[in-house]
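Following up on my earlier thread - several people asked me to post the actual chain instead of describing it. Fair enough. Here it is, all 157 residues.
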Amino acid sequence: MKKLIISLLAVLLAGSLFAAPAKPYEYFTVDPAAASVEAGKILTIKGKVKTQDEYMFGGVTALVQRRMAPASYFASQSARVKFYHKNPAKPAPYDSMLLNKNILKKAVAEGEFELTVNTAGMTPGDYAVALQGYFTKPGAKAAYASIYFVLNIKASE
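Reply from S.P.:
Thanks for posting it. Predicted structure:
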């Protein structure tokens, strides 16, 4: 019985060493989670965040990945694409384009954030915009967490 208990404790302890770290936030949301605008308009995305476990929220970045946007968008904007592979001639689904970022002057544990996106040059279609939050914690590596915002771009009239 003693060996069984020791074995069970060893397994539990080993499992806790490899457990995924807790997410750095209690909530990280945008409201509304979707919008539809004409190409060329400026869109303001508003959100709320509350961190946990000593993390602080330092800002948010908006980007679009190739796999989550109309193909015509990346074809028309190729000069600004960040490639995630060594050969730009062979597009990868995780190639991305930065839309904007908002780095806070002072990190917060809880609050609201805003991010503007200029839709000039965006081709009509549906986009899943990744909003990547930047979280810091004393004595730990920075953590990043993403939520998605659905953006429908309509042709300009």
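The mean pLDDT is 83. That should answer part of your original question.
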